[in-house]
## 1
Amino acid sequence: MTQKGIFHRIKKDWVIYLMLFPAILYFVIFNVIPIIGMKLAFQDYRVIGDNIWVGLKHFKVLFSSPAFFDVLQNTIIISTMKIVFFFPIPIVLSLMINELRNGPFRKYVQSVIYLPHFLSWVVIAGVWISLLSPDAGGINVIRNFFQLPTLDYMTSKDHIRWVLVFSEMWRSAGWDSIIYLAAIMKISPSLYEAARIDGASTFQQMRFITFPQLLSTVVVVFILNLGFFLNAGFDQVFNMINDSTISKIDILDTYVYRIGILNGQYAYATAASLFKGVIGVILILSTHFISKRLTGKGVW
Amino acid sequence: MRRFVKRFTWSQFIICTVLLVLSFMVLVPILNLLAMSLSDPLQVHKLSGLDIIPKGFSFINYEVLFSNPLIVRSIFNSLFLTIVGTALNLFLTALAAYVLARTDFVGKRVVILFLIVIMVFEPGLIPEYLLVKDLGLLDTYASLILYKTINIFYLFILMRFFEEVPDGILEAARIDGAGHFRIFTRIMLPLSKPGLATLGLFYGVYHWNEYFRATIYLTDPNKWPLQVVIRQFVVERDNTTLLGAQNLLSYEQVQALDFGSLQAGTIIISIVPLLVFYPFILKYYAKGALEGGVKD
């Protein structure tokens, strides 16, 4: 196409550009400007006048600060615990739900276990604070029944990370099982028929047909989860953290919030946030391409 | 017909039992809060954390909550933010989705690439906060409505719905002389109701549950949405704000009130609208989330 042809087409399609304009304007203001704004990590913030370039000053302070490494360590520990103990649960759940006949019981189970996904972490924190309350909360009622002493989980340094893992399960295990359930539905019924004729039990069918067929979905979800490794669940921690447990569950995002928004150290917080962002982008891009290579499915 | 014979075996019995127990683990903590909020304040101390039947029965907690102007206002604030926010989300997302899915123009590939790039580079909290501050949007609802007005994941999902509308219909409209905007409003939107319903639920649930940006952007408690008020009561344990009810109750009755029950009541109030929409959520949201491959 000639130059002239391109201009002619742009002129002819002006309505299209007009329709696209609000979206582009929006993305430029609310995405591009804040992304460029990350340059604050290399500056000192000034309320009046231009910010001053200070190079790597904030990063030097960051990387020599023990607090930052504590927070990084917490983030890695919590993410790892969630991957090890939470990740397999939705897979097992989907295998179990798949064994249910279509009918009211299956509908009931699905409707109930998907529900917590739609509650905010504020509400879930409220539910769990009540459930774990030392004052006749459900879990302590059970503990007392087995002659165990009452335990205040929400303020216990030894237990709070497990509270994060289990409340994450409570919220997401059901919902996350949907993606596996959909993959199971696509498995050809003839495989099961053949297996049953050969006398395979329900468990054997699960073990030798469903699970191997499910594996590629498991790999995709696992790899994509790794891309968000440094997130570790901001909303969850933000609503469950307190002074007693801060040393155990303060993560990168809550740290950025505290030093940035609460203490007003904008530039320093942006440096911490940029560190997390750069590693995040590297993780997302590499997991995207690994997943594309292995299974043909990526983040986008 | 996935299975030609379904016998009720032992393994199935075990699976049903396990799933039933799991469903109780989800339901009992919520029903316990409901029971707590409906119990008689004088008897609620007898309610154990596993009970789902109220001890005695009283609406007093809800009377107190609904007589607190802060709570009543926050409910309306939340409804306003959810309705206006979702409407704007839907309109702008659909407009962009139509252009990207159903038209061909110079620079389309560049626009798509641009979207993917900004999807990967999530801006940090601080620059976003400073932008909102510089735009003079602190303490305004615009700051909440404009965050992720177009969610790129959702945009891609809606594009997939729009792609399903048959070419022939658009072609016929074009021959009849309809322009792009007319095709968008008269054909694309009416024929994509399931897609719009799906996205409306995505955005609606997001707005209803939003608390974080409201916490940092809104300093005036009168503007708070319900989630921020709940956070104040339940997470921050700020009981003084909860007692906005002296007019309704005599001093002794206020003394008898149980804060745990009042907190439970606020949680239940916030769950009710979700339950109203839950059948639609199950129908559209789950399907849309699968097709888009979105986790959240």
Note: DSSP finds 15 helices and no strands in chain B.
## 2
Amino acid sequence: MIQLDKVNKSFGSLTALREVTMQVEDGHIFGLVGTNGAGKSTLLRILAGIYRADSGQVLYDGAPVYENIPVKQEIFYISDDPYYFLNASIDEMKSYYRNLYPRFDQALYTKLLSGLDLDPNRKLHTFSKGMLRQAIIVLAFASRSHYILFDETFDGLDPVMRQAVKRLIASGVAENELVPVIASHNLRELEDIADHVSVLHRGSMVLDMRLDDMRADIYKIQCAFSEVPTPQWFQDLDVIQMEVRGRFATLVVRAPKAEILAAVQAREPVFMETIPLTLEEIFIAQMEGIGYEAKHILL
Amino acid sequence: MKQNISFCNGRSLGHTLRRYWWLGFINLVVFFFAMPLPALVAFYNHARNLGGQSVILSETPDIPWTMQALYGYADSQGGLVILMLLAMGLAFVAGLTLLHYLHDRRQVNFFHAQPIRREALFVERVLAAVILFAAPLVVNQLLALLVAGLYGCLGLVPWGGLLAKLLWVFVGYLMVLSITMLAGTLTGTTFAQFEMSALIGCLPMVLWGLGVLLMQQCYVTYMAPGNLLGVSQGFTPIMLCPPLYLLIYGAQGVYPPAGWAVFFLILPPVLLAAALLLYRLRALERAQSPLVFGVSRPIVRLSTCAAASVAMALLFSVMTESLFLQILGLILGALLCHMFCQAQFYKDFKAMFRGLPSLGVLTALILAVIIGMNLDVTGYDRYLPDASAVRSISLVQASREDFSPLEYTGGSMREAQFDHLDTEDPQVIEDVLAFLEQVYALADAQEDPTAFSWFQTRSMSLSNVSYNNVVINLRFTLRNGRQVFRRLPMIQVPDTVLDDLEAICNLPAYLEKHQAVQIAQLEELAEAKYTPITMDTFLRGEQTHTDATPAVIQALRTAIAMDVQEQGVHRNDPVVGRLRFSAPETSDRPDAAYVYILEVRASYANTLRVLEDLGWNESFYPQGPTAGITALRVYRETAGENDASSFTSYLFTDPLAIDAILQAARPREYYRYSVTPSSYDSRYHFIVRICYTDGGYGWVLEPMNETDDGGSPMISTSTGYAEVDYTMVFLSGCVPQAVADALGG
């Protein structure tokens, strides 16, 4: 389990992280969302033990990460701009990592390389951006680290490969107790994989919730009426969003489903349907619920 | 999760060594060209010069010298300097390369995300740098030894000197490496690391040098304890750049004093420990910022600005006497340096104009200090210690040559005055101080500033000082042990002032006594030590070589011992400097055939070898009518003004003419006789100079031998002489006019 408690980090006069508190529990896939410059990469580097927090605590199972080798042997950090040695091949990088990660899994390494059709002896500088990402992901999984920190890792991967990586992550969580922390500026990337999401905005954590909790009691209703609906019709409900087009209305409501349906039925709709919410819509709803202009925070 | 702290990860070190194998390869190649290859060439040439003779190479006279040059610490050919320079250059490259990752954000993120402690990362880099240097060095040294072994000379290897050489080269490498690595941890870019290395290495020397120059510029009576590069005159490695100091020891082939040797051994680990500490404190996110520690910015900026402003002000003061321009130079130096620093710090040219208030304060302070020094607000130039506090006083007149018999016999007594005086006599001290007070008072009261003033002497070169432009150097040794140095230049001093000083110090009597001692010593040297070694008896063959050689060797040993004493080098040092005993140019005994100049410019071992040649080698001087000489070029030297000479040459190929010339020269006494043997190209290559200067004429005879292929005679030129710049011994005597006449002058 990763615990961050009131972590602050500044670069000169620029405050990158402000009083960030969060918790990443085992068995969860943790998504970290924020716009460019929100502090995601800084947070991940602090989580990776690269940067030292100005104040606050970063604990892995109760132990600090900074300059703590046993803890860092359980962490693999995939940078948004991965570095590899000059003229190195994947195999040469593997030999480096194998020296540092005691549980490095050679069999898994071979299997993943073969699965992704990557040549272990080919020089990395001849790889495309996507292939480089694949190579580093292979090394990360083969290291058998308990925690893998992904920084914008899906960038540059084609859709097929994204799904493959997501499956890898899911199986890692299921089979090897992997705890992935995925930072992305794109909420849609995390929608089908993360089960706990935090939102960083200008260095502050503005939202930190499990996805199931978010989804609970938020519904999107599409309905049509014989006359033009007004907001007053649903003033007893906690309507987060209401869009009216003629006699057609779309509502996002936070309330038990039965209560919502009863309230809509009372207006005798011509047509009524409950449709699933995207993660983005849930976020917008949540963010606006706590007073943020979500469209400025999320893409 | 408990962790064990480790300062080195062996497997990671192995990986680093593999990654930077090319550094080791470069070292290997560089040292190959500097160590085994020259050895191979030298031994090959020696073997070739033997020309198939049944002589064992290791028993030839040149070999000990060669072994010393190739393998020993003292290398008369400057090889140690080359090795040291190479080592320092390679250390610089290694330091920049191995810490490059700290200056690149991608690499910082990569390496520090790995489960390796910073200490281990750093120590691993240092170890890699050491291994990648030491291994090629040792391998090449072994190869060089193998070469010696192949030629049967392994037994002549100077093992102590070899180990000292390797150790010293290694210390030089570590010194530069530690400075570069310390600079690397302070900076965030490779360029800044480059600059910071220079700053750490040279800033103390630069500041010290500028301080001395400033003192000299502002205080007339300031006397530096030595010149700027006078490391032998009391500078310390702390004040100078330590690598430079190491290099100087290498250049001189002289072992450093034990204290400084320990200092040099300790300093690199201390610097590396400081670098490690800074690495631990370093904020990794500051990669690509020129200076990682914010606190160092104003220190670096203001100290370099101060140095630049003073340097520019001094430069302007050399170019112009205008005070306005000097102040302008000061401001300009500070401003330009400030702008350069700011643009680098912020990577923004607009930032050049930030921080100007602090620069203004700094400039004003420097200006105030310089003006204060010029106005002598502290009374430095007028300082005289209290007579009761002075234990002894020393006066040295620095505007002329030091006292010598030459001046005594060739010049007047007047010219030898004010030469040197040391006294502890309280009365004399009191009188001298009273006199100096009068001098100061006179200077203050003078109406004509050029009549008696030290302020006019600032730009005056000492070489232009005439009799009336006297510079007196003063040294007060106080009772508390402190020494006070002052320089007192005086222009157009009234005779009465000098007479007063003479009277006070009783200098004539002192000098008479001093001169008598000097003359006695010289006579003793000339008669007792060098009389047996006469050119006359040597060349006539009246004295057997076996008798003469030990005497010469003994004389040289005495000379070297004295040289050691004078130069302050270690008595076991095989390299000696230069020793010259001068006798009066106009001797009252022109027919005396004693040697009066003995000049040694070689390694001790080599000098002995040359002298053995003088005594034992029959082919050294031509024996018989031609002695294999097929041509003889005679130079007639005409002395002109200011020692300018012109030469007219005559080439003689007739054996009878050659014989006649040689016979004419042989039995007579020589004014000068120099020998230039070459150990490589020509067994007979040497130059005999027979010069006669009385009347302004001189002769140079150059015996030649046939070329190796038996072709036309090889005529050496003065260029060829310079190429074999190998002159070891000058033995000089007096020549009668008849010799010059006999040679057709």
Note: Residues 2-213 of chain A form a domain with the Rossmann fold fold (CATH 3.40.50.300).
